[in-house]
Design brief:
The protein has about 250 residues and is α+β, with helices and mostly antiparallel strands. It has 6 helices and 13 strands. It has one domain. β10 and β11 form a beta hairpin. The radius of gyration is 22 Å and the shape is globular.
């Protein structure tokens, strides 16, 4: 069909069609691609498909820079090969563990449904794997890459924290979640067994050991403080985020 043969009605219909296609394209771009200011640099995020763990839990994923992360804390109770991860509720037993285990904050499953489960580092480091196929627990260096991309230890926390006050409380007014990481304050379980700081602190294991009894982790707090990198006992219970294999 030649343009010269079109009448005015046909020509206008084609123009309207092109306009609608363009509008749809812009909608898709802004729905799935976020570009946020990071000083003089842009923070680029792209919403991707979901991934499913061995228990059938689904996780939305997000590309942040060149990395792909889950947007929720891990909630799995089995290793990748189907073996059960022990659920240890007793404080005295938890403090003596030298093998992988998980717990729910305050031993309540309703907390796990929101914040994910808490794992000791032995579960993180188990060769059977706790992340889905094609995913792994990030190294300390991979965490550092994320934090650097988001502007460093001082700027990253508010760009990672879920917005609003429902989970983080009244001190969360500066959170933007520009990265769409959606960090939640899942608290922790101390190496001696007690639970601490649900709704106030979020702690995430790295897969990097720091000695015979120690391993590295990252923390975000409700007080809008800088992100903390610390080396502590492997028997603590912390949250886990998975990152996609390169």
């Amino acid at each position: 069909m030649k343009w010269s043969n079109l009448n005015i009605s046909q020509y206008m219909k084609i123009r309207v069609l092109f306009f609608l296609v363009a509008i749809f394209g812009f909608f898709i771009m802004f729905r799935f691609v976020g570009v946020h200011s990071k000083g003089n640099k842009k923070v680029r995020t792209i919403a991707l498909d979901t991934v499913t763990d061995i228990d059938g839990n689904k996780y939305q994923t997000i590309a942040i820079g060149k990395q792909v992360w889950m947007t929720k804390n891990l909630n799995v109770t089995h290793y990748r090969n189907g073996d059960s991860i022990p659920n240890v509720t007793d404080d005295s037993l938890w403090s003596k563990l030298a093998y992988g285990a998980y717990c729910n904050y305050d031993n309540k499953t309703e907390n796990a449904e929101i914040y994910g489960r808490l794992y000791n580092w032995y579960a993180v480091n188990d060769p059977r794997g706790i992340c889905p196929e094609g995913w792994h627990v990030p190294t300390d260096a991979e965490w550092q890459t994320l934090i650097k991309y988001l502007g460093g230890e001082n700027e990253a926390p508010n760009k990672m924290k879920e917005t609003g006050f429902f989970h983080w409380g009244g001190k969360n007014k500066e959170a933007t979640n520009k990265s769409e990481f959606t960090a939640l304050p899942g608290g922790s379980r101390h190496k001696e067994g007690p639970f601490h700081n649900l709704g106030k602190h979020g702690h995430w294991w790295t897969s990097t050991g720091g000695g015979e009894q120690l391993a590295w982790y990252r923390s975000i707090f409700d007080e809008n403080l800088a992100m903390v990198r610390k080396n502590d006992f492997k028997t603590h219970g912390f949250s886990v985020r998975c990152i996609k294999d390169e």
